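Q: I have 139 residues here and want to know how they pack in 3D. Can you give me a structure?
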Amino acid sequence: MTSDDLCATALASLTTAGFTDATATRRSDTMAIATVPAARTAWADFALASHTALRLADRAGRARYALFPARNHGEPYSRTVYFCATGPGLAQELVDKVLCHTVRIVPGHTTEADIPKALATALFDDSDRAGDITVTRLA
């Protein structure tokens, strides 16, 4: 699936879920960005459940999702992730900072949707703290 196909299927899913103001744009050959009003993220999470989606930080009142084509086979690859972390146990020098970490993706085993768990494991040694991670962008 190309990223243009990914945009089309994401918009179709969001439109079916009742979003009249959703957007989806091609970011690269391997990623698209979809946006919806931030107040409706629960519906967007449901509408995009069939996609490999990574929730990004909200921007200008819009919830953002990075969408990726499925890769069931192939060589492992990495994504550079910029993120913020919160919660107990976070070193004081990391509070209110944008952090950067490279996460390895192994097709067939992990996807970009697993990035918050990988970052929580690296930062807190606890994948259950994925909710304390907010991804701001991917490079």
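Q: Anything worth noting?
A: The longest strand covers residues 77-85. Residues 3-16 form the longest helix (14 residues).
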